[in-house]
């Protein structure tokens, strides 16, 4: 297309579009944001808009006041959006109005409340690769949070991506060959590759130093590779936002040393986060009343503590709330009045705060003294009260300046409170009382002229005027100036009326300019306190999570866990925190781990509760290390470094991995990374292959975990042959789910007892599922034949004590805690 055939405005559009080829360009024209050519066709289809044309070119647009709702739809559909605004006043512009892109919106750079989920972080992440290590950075622009880590393998990187669930991922271009492996299990992530030069070390160092105003990057205590990715991400953010993001915090370093690390498999198997399936630990423990608390709860559940001192501090606070129901309810009442000041702070810092944000900030600052006073009433909680800042100066500014119910935007005199600006008050008085003044003027002129039907009117075309009927024209004074002649009347203006008109019309314009200026000044003053607001928001979020733990504990009958010093464990009457809400008369069970009970083989029929039992053991330990009370009568627990799970059957069709391969890969991860301080729960290892291969693998895995790792383990299985291990190893014990056989089937009692399952009762379960009687009858006939002829019970040799000693001797010579020899 030749530009000479286009209008100047269309040439302006194309010049800007050329710089943003990968974006939908929304081009401001009057009261609309318009798109042209292919962009118009795209938004017409995505937003269900009418496709029109301008000079023969496709065109579609959206009203400027509804921009956010349309942008949200485009972003959700996977598009980048460039906002092109008029950067000079059309009324004073000479020729074509100047326009520039003021912001590029992507899924990871959203900041407005209406575009975000209130209780979910909105992360943008960046990753590169250096000598097999993947430095990784995440940032939530909407809250200012930044964190860095280094993933030692591709598997670690995938775990981190699963845990953080970024909405946008920036990758070094050299990672393109690994795109499928890295993003295979991510859903709805917006992916962008940046050229290698974005990841240059020298420019990243200088950029990070300038961004944080640091003399040296040493203070950040992060690696050179992490600095490179941090710099690349910050450059991208600035490149798309066109504003400094000074509210972004110093990066938190995510190292495993301080937290129990949960891989993607464990998070999914234990249903820690909400999913399409019914129920999750997050939903069970969520009695938070602020959006900040909802986000913080998720963060804590994914990062249980290993520092016993920090765990106990959280538990002390939960117990203080738990023991004082009145204090707890009063705190919840105050927290309900607290708004999301983490995100409000970010919008203040970026110049995108709206009057509603300032109103919410004021309400939150007003409730802080009440929370502080309440916490001071309890010795344990008074320590937290010390950290609550009251922001008296900022609160007084907001109380004096912002109306109780401000308009959506400044400019009409309905945002700034009366009494804050004398000049604005005078202008508003003039506007609000203009009708009264006109009535006074009209009455004076009637008395002066004797024209009783004289009227003072206003319209947008002629402004203010005096209207006199034709029959009274002879009585019009000499100082009346004719303005318009109508059929039945004449319209006039006087010097006094003209002066008043100029005042009123200019007052409206002056109000718009002055109120916007006052509002921007207030926001600028408040922006100096952004980091302090963020800190207060973080403190409120933590209080909200801790009161949530206490609220749920009170409601569900949880107890405070106690931690052992010798890595032993005893949980009495343990319950599954999620399942108990869906099952009538849930049956609690005990679990004990010590030197003579470190490994359990759990057998029993399907549907008897094996999976529920092993999951509840893991979830109780996780809850305790998060700082929550636990569903049990009594709980003595060790501090675990990791929880590993291998549960259920699933494949990875897209990755070309069968169910059995996925099972073996998960098992290999456990055997290579578990330590003696870990908790391992296994369900049906070896079931994805032939019976003999499966038993062999399950047997070897069990021996390896017991001998080479020595961690607390529960292995739920249908391979009753594995129970022979209890005869060979002192610390391996057998447990089963109690079943009562009746004439036409079985009753599952869901009680875990010592012993071995007599049979799997698979046919009885099939009957419950509704298989036809003829199929069930035939299955029983076949089972009798197999049992009579099977030699399976002879395939696993029970070794003598001398042979066991020889095996242990050989193993201890070949294996140590970090060695993985099976896979």
UniProtKB/TrEMBL annotation:
Q: Which GO terms describe its molecular function?
A: ATP binding; ATP-dependent DNA damage sensor activity; damaged DNA binding; mismatched DNA binding
> Which PROSITE patterns does its entry note?
DNA_MISMATCH_REPAIR_2 (PS00486)
Q: Which residues form a coiled coil?
A: 417-444
Q: Using the record's annotation, list all stretches that form the DNA mismatch repair proteins mutS family domain.
A: 678-694
The record's listing under InterPro entries reads: DNA_mismatch_repair_MutS, DNA_mismatch_repair_MutS-lik_N, DNA_mismatch_repair_MutS/MSH, DNA_mismatch_repair_MutS_C, DNA_mismatch_repair_MutS_clamp, DNA_mismatch_repair_MutS_core, DNA_mismatch_repair_MutS_N, DNA_mismatch_repair_MutS_sf
The record describes the protein's role as: This protein is involved in the repair of mismatches in DNA. It is possible that it carries out the mismatch recognition step. This protein has a weak ATPase activity.
Can you say what this protein is called?
Answer: DNA mismatch repair protein MutS
Organism, by scientific name, is Kosmotoga olearia (strain ATCC BAA-1733 / DSM 21960 / TBF 19.5.1)
Q: What is the lineage of its organism?
A: Bacteria, Thermotogati, Thermotogota, Thermotogae, Kosmotogales
What gene does this protein come from?
mutS
């Amino acid at each position: 297309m030749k530009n000479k055939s286009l209008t100047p405005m269309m040439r302006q559009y194309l010049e800007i579009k050329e710089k943003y080829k990968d974006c939908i360009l929304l081009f401001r024209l009057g009261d609309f944001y318009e798109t042209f050519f292919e962009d118009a066709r795209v938004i017409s289809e995505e937003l269900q808009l009418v496709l029109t044309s301008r000079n023969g070119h496709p065109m579609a647009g959206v009203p400027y006041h509804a921009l956010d709702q349309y942008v949200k739809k485009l972003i959700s559909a996977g598009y980048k959006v460039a906002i092109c605004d008029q950067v000079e006043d059309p009324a004073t512009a000479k020729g074509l109005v100047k326009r520039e892109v003021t912001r590029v919106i992507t899924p990871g750079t959203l900041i407005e409340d209406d575009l975000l989920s209130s209780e979910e972080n909105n992360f943008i992440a960046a990753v590169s690769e250096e000598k097999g290590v993947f430095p990784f950075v995440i940032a939530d622009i909407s809250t200012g949070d930044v964190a860095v880590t280094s993933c030692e393998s591709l598997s670690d990187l995938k775990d981190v991506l699963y845990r953080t669930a970024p909405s946008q991922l920036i990758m070094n271009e050299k990672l393109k060959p690994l795109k499928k492996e890295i993003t295979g299990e991510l859903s709805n992530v917006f992916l962008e590759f940046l050229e290698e030069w974005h990841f240059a070390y020298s420019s990243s160092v200088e950029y990070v130093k300038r961004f944080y105003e640091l003399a040296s990057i040493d203070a950040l205590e992060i690696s050179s590779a992490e600095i490179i990715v941090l710099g690349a991400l910050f450059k991208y953010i600035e490149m798309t936002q066109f504003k400094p993001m000074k509210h972004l915090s110093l990066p938190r370093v995510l190292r495993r040393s301080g937290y129990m690390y949960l891989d993607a498999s464990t998070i999914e198997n234990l249903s820690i986060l909400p999913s399409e399936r019914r129920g999750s630990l997050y939903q069970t423990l969520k009695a938070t009343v602020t959006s900040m608390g909802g986000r913080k709860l998720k963060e804590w559940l994914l990062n249980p503590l290993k520092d016993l001192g920090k765990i106990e501090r959280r538990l002390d606070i939960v117990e203080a709330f738990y023991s004082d129901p009145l204090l707890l309810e009063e705190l919840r009442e105050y927290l309900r009045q607290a708004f999301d000041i983490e995100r409000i702070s970010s919008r203040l810092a970026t110049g995108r705060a709206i009057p509603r944000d300032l109103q919410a900030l004021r309400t939150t600052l007003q409730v802080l003294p009440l929370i502080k006073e309440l916490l001071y009433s309890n010795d344990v909680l008074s320590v937290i009260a010390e950290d609550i800042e009251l922001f008296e100066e900022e609160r007084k500014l907001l109380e004096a300046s912002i109306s109780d119910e401000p308009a959506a935007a400044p400019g009409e005199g309905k945002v700034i409170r009366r009494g804050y600006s004398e000049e604005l008050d005078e202008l508003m008085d003039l506007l609000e009382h203009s009708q009264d003044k006109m009535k006074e003027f009209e009455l004076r002129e009637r008395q002066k002229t004797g024209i009783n039907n004289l009227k003072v009117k206003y319209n947008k075309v002629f402004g203010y005027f005096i209207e006199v009927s034709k029959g009274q024209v002879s009585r019009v004074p000499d100082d009346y100036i004719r303005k318009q002649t109508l059929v039945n009347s004449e319209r006039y203006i006087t010097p006094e009326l003209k002066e008043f008109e100029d005042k009123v019309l200019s007052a409206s314009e002056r109000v718009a300019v002055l109120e916007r200026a006052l509002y921007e000044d207030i926001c600028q003053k408040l922006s100096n306190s952004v980091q302090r607001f963020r800190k207060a928001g973080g403190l409120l979020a933590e209080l909200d999570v801790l009161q949530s733990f206490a609220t749920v504990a009170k409601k569900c009958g949880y107890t405070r866990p106690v931690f052992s010093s010798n890595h032993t464990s005893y949980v009495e009457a343990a319950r599954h925190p999620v399942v108990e809400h869906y099952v009538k008369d849930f049956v609690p069970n005990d679990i004990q781990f010590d030197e003579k009970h470190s490994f359990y083989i759990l057998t029993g029929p399907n549907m008897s509760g094996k999976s529920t039992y092993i999951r509840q053991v893991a979830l109780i330990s996780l809850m305790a290390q998060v700082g929550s009370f636990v569903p049990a009568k009594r709980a003595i627990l060790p501090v675990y470094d990791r929880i590993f799970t291998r549960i259920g059957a699933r494949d990875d069709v897209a990755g070309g991995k069968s169910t059995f391969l996925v099972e073996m890969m998960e098992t290999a991860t456990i055997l290579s990374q578990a330590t003696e301080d870990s908790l391992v729960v296994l369900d049906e290892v070896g079931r994805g292959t032939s019976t003999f291969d499966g038993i062999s693998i399950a047997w070897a895995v069990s021996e390896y975990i017991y001998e080479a790792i020595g961690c607390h383990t529960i292995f739920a299985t249908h391979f009753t042959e594995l129970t022979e291990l209890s005869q060979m190893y002192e610390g391996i014990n057998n447990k089963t789910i109690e079943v009562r056989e009746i004439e036409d089937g079985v009753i599952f009692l869901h009680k875990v007892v010592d012993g071995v399952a007599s049979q799997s009762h698979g046919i009885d379960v099939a009957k419950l599922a509704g298989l036809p009687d003829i199929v069930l009858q035939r299955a029983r006939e076949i089972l009798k034949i197999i049992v009579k002829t099977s030699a399976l019970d002879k395939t696993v040799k029970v070794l003598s004590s001398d042979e066991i000693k020889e095996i242990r001797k050989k193993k201890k010579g070949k294996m140590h805690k970090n060695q993985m020899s099976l896979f």
